[in-house]
Amino acid sequence: MNIAIGDLHGESYWRDMLKIPADNYYITGDYFDSFRLSFAKQKNNFIDLIDEAKRNERLHLCIGNHDLHYLISDWQQYSGFQYKYAAFIKEMVEGALPYLKAAYQSDSGYVISHAGFTKTFMRETACTSIADVEQQFRANLLFLGFNDRCPDSYGDNIEQGPLWVRPESLMADYYFPKQIVGHTEFRGGIQRVEEDGTDFVFVDCTNQGFQWFEF
């Protein structure tokens, strides 16, 4: 059994997740930019999380747009950017990059990422696999940034990448038929859409407390 939880934004729900016996644990990213928690709490939580990832090979961390923008802030900054602490956060995220991946694929076929993969994004970037995406991301951090050629500032466009695409566009133009994503907040709890051989699970609901998806 595997477990996935959504965006953290400084919350420590990953500690609760690790108390549940599982083969693998996944988090969809966004470790910073809480509107509720102090920077000190966000910082300490991230340090503890990365320390755990270094020790625990079963813990898999996706990078989110609220982590990435500290690395590419000279070109892009998104809502919630913490200007006062930006230099410090950038240093922490840079140090943690070996443990922050664009996506993972489970043995059961689910692809776990921050926002998901569309056919259009994969085609336009000449990617055919998660490994291709990861390689391009490591070569150019802006590769996962917001696609500012798209007219929708919310990111609801099939050309957006795995840190930005929104659920409607993802389901309309999916590349992988089974995806677990965060990024878009669902106040009604974890949402799952299964039809025509596809399975989309939206886990960004940590604003309501600890919730997890087993697969």
Features:
globular, 28% helix, alpha/beta, five-stranded mixed sheet, 7 helices
Distance between the termini: 6 Å
* Estimated structural class: alpha/beta
State the helical fraction.
Answer: 25-40%
Care to count the β-strands? Answer: 10
Q: Based on CA inertia axes, which overall geometry fits? A: globular
CATH architecture: 4-Layer Sandwich
Q: What is the H/E string?
A: EHEHEHHEEEHHHEEEE
> What is the spatial order of strands in the main beta sheet?
4-3-2-1-10
Using only C-alpha atoms, the radius of gyration works out to 16 Å
For the biggest sheet, the summary is: 5 strands, mixed
The overall average pLDDT, rounded, is 97
Highest CATH level, the class:
Alpha Beta
- Percent of residues in beta strands: 15-25%
Number of domains: 1
Can you walk me through this structure?
The mean pLDDT is 97. The chain has a single domain, classed as Metallo-dependent phosphatases (Purple Acid Phosphatase, chain A, domain 2), CATH 3.60.21.10. The radius of gyration is 16 Å and the shape is globular. The chain has 215 residues and is of the alpha/beta class. The strands form two sheets. The protein has a five-stranded mixed β-sheet with strand order 4-3-2-1-10. A five-stranded mixed β-sheet has the order 5-6-7-9-8, covered by helices on one side. A hairpin with a 2-residue loop joins strand 8 and strand 9. The longest helix is centred in the N-terminal third of the chain and has 17 residues.
